[in-house]
Amino acid sequence: MAQSKTPMLDDLEKGAWPSFITEMKKAAAKKANSQDLLDQLELSYKDKTGYWKHGGIVGVKGYGGGVIGRYSAKPEEFPNVKEFHTVRVNMVPGFFYTTKALRSLCETWDKFGSGLTNMHGSTGDIILLGTTTENLQPCFDELSEKGWDLGGSGGGLRTPSGCVGMARCEFACIDSMDFIQEVTRHFQNEIHRPAWPYKFKIKCSACANDCAAATARSDFAVIGTWRDSLKIDQDAVREYVKGGFDIQQLVVGKCPTKALEFDSAKQELKFDAENCVRCMNCIDMMPKAVKTGKDRGAAILIGGKAPVVKSAFIGWVLVPFMKVDAPYTEIFDLVSRITEYFDEHAKPRERIGELIYRIGMGNFLKGIGLTPQPQMVSAPRANPYIFWQEEEVVKHG
Amino acid sequence: MAKTDFGPPDYRTMIPPVIANNYGKWSYHEIPQPGVLKHVSETGAVLYSVRIASARLISTDWIKELCDIAEKYCDGYLRFTTRHNVEFLVSDEQQLQPLLADLKGRGYLVGGTGNAISNVVHTQGWIHCHTPATDASGLVKSMMDELHGYFTTMKLPARVRLAVACCVNMCGACHCSDIAIVGIHRTIPRINHEGVAKACEIPSVIAACPTGAIRPNPKLKSVEVIKEKCMFCGNCYTMCPSMEIADPINDGVSIWVGGKVSNARTAPKFSRLAIPFLPNNPPRWPEVTDAVKHLVEVYAKNARAGERMGEWIDRIGWERFFKLTDIPFTEKHIDDFTFAPTTFRSTSQFRL
């Protein structure tokens, strides 16, 4: 038995959780670049540092994005990962696949790449991990032939992504999968030819549970909600209570605005519709008994992002409620107005949340033509430094 | 010339008939056992989804294995979740038990539903990232080998979302997770002046610094870093490869707690600092794994039913969180950046 070249990584094949090392070894059995990837990773584990250089500009004809260049910092030692680029493939909305589609994808990737993937990357794309500059174009040609397009990268619109929505969720207030598909088709040019100061992400969750983490991760978050009253089926409520469900602790006591009360005499859930802030908890807890309202649309939140540079932001309410139905004209128009403003006013590598932080929400609202509304703030300003405009005060003389 | 700009494959060609026929008509769901969702439509139709853990970094061989399984029990339909689990979509109830038996036989973990630790959203780490301070996949594997019992059951007070990011860029929704593990640097960039002069756009490098710690060094046609102002974010290295920030001796991991993205009950929250630094000790990161396990256990023992980690902490107060977890509170825990004043306590209400 030959001595293993990867003793540290071998240890990560033990244990109950699925092993990424086992996956890498499967690919390494067939591909020299995956074997070098494994060996370089062993060195990283030994030295406690990464061995990838900055990406270069690589891509496919006609596109400015969708490929992430990656070069080994140790090409003499690991010649087969000298070039090891990522191809971002636009996933199916909702991450649904037929086996036929997945097999066709694997066939192309086995031919041109490392045989390693992420299903999926953080942004939502299918990540095909590792190929050479030379193989990029033939790989894309074949993918495109089979109906797979590339996703976004760089300073443009990133591949929009969303939750499962109406396909398999009773909470869905909007058709998140269809919206994501259509918004992606509509803004293809902005995805494939990045021309903005920095990235711009659109994500959509069909209800306030936000399974797509849209508010935390996207510049433009679409969160499904409703504006009439939620619906309560009292018989179903009784069923839950009869089954030993602690309605007081898990539902009534958790309502953020005390809009719910349980009438134990009538065995009924009383509800103050005007005070409901549509948080989803009672619906989450009793999906058979409480349903969303029927007049459905979405809240739009702007500016969500991770820490670098100014801080992480959780998106801010921009539009308290709007209808989001095909053909999505109104919401596409809003995206266009915002991204045009972003393109014009943002500094290089400044996200829209940071731009708004720098210039003020008031100026941003003016710039994109939206009216201020109390839903946008948790409280009005506490400092007295108000920007008055010349046209708002009496001119002297 | 290849066809371009057609976007994603049409989802309508990828969904099983039971979904096509009940799209937008689902009435409720139940979780008959961990890892199994039962969705019932207004039409009476039923769909079972069986969820399994995935390493996220997966080979085409394994994808083909998933396809074999989906063809045998699910007419060739499957999906992935937003947290990178795999879901087999079972339209025929007769196939449910045979599928579960088959998955068990292969040693797959079925779970990740309801009040569980679902799959860990994570980044590329040393495997494929150019700015990592740690490896993400190795951390996830080490942690979940210890915590998989929380994936295959639903015994926690509420769901617990774990995330790992290999640097403060936090690709993924790390900053709003119940427990986030984030790779950090702790020493200032080492400047290769010749490289900066030759290949870096100096104004962009200076502008990239969040604290204005970088100033020009005209003599060398390069830049210098004001040591006291550097927060070790690595943003300058992202702009300029001649400002190396990776430091194998000092890089490591920080742990953040109490974030969430859902609006249920309480507003979405940022994860906040629990442990400022633990060393990188591959391949198993024992210090990190122990710390995360400890946090999960203290939460499980003390939180009330339906309380997410951040909601539990809000109820008992951070002062008690540090007591209960036995984590030392230091000046590192007090914010000094964009939102710092909003985190200082302005009331005499606190627990002693």
Automatic annotation (TrEMBL), chain A:
PROSITE patterns (UniProt xref): 4FE4S_FER_2 (PS51379)
InterPro entries according to UniProt: 4Fe4S_Fe-S-bd, DsrA, NiRdtase/SiRdtase_haem-b_fer, Nit/Sulf_reduc_fer-like_dom_sf, NO2/SO3_Rdtase_4Fe4S_dom, NO2/SO3_Rdtase_4Fe4S_sf
Boundaries of every 4Fe-4S ferredoxin-type domain copy: 267-295
Keyword annotations from UniProtKB, A to Z: Iron, Iron-sulfur, Metal-binding, Oxidoreductase
Source organism superkingdom: Bacteria
Any one Gene Ontology molecular-function term assigned to this protein's record: oxidoreductase activity
The name this protein goes by in its record: Dissimilatory-type sulfite reductase subunit alpha
Annotated NCBIfam families: dsrA (TIGR02064)
Keyword hit for Chloroplast: no
EC identifiers of the protein: 1.8.99.5
Keyword Oxidoreductase: yes
UniProtKB/TrEMBL annotation, chain B:
Keywords: 4Fe-4S, Iron, Iron-sulfur, Metal-binding, Oxidoreductase
Pfam families (UniProt xref): Fer4, NIR_SIR, NIR_SIR_ferr
Lineage top rank: taxon: Bacteria
Molecular-function GO term, any one: oxidoreductase activity
InterPro entries (alphabetical): 4Fe4S_Fe-S-bd (IPR017896), 4Fe4S_Fe_S_CS (IPR017900), DsrB (IPR011808), NiRdtase/SiRdtase_haem-b_fer (IPR005117), Nit/Sulf_reduc_fer-like_dom_sf (IPR036136), NO2/SO3_Rdtase_4Fe4S_dom (IPR006067), NO2/SO3_Rdtase_4Fe4S_prot (IPR045169), NO2/SO3_Rdtase_4Fe4S_sf (IPR045854)
Needed co-factor(s): siroheme; [4Fe-4S] cluster
Top-level enzyme category: oxidoreductase
4Fe-4S ferredoxin-type domain mapped to chain residues: 221-251
Enzyme Commission no: 1.8.99.5
Coiled coil residues, start to end: none
The UniProt record lists the keyword rRNA-binding: no
NCBIfam families documented for this protein: dsrB
UniProt-recorded name of the protein: Dissimilatory-type sulfite reductase subunit beta
Organism of derivation: Anaeroselena agilis
Gene responsible for this protein: dsrB
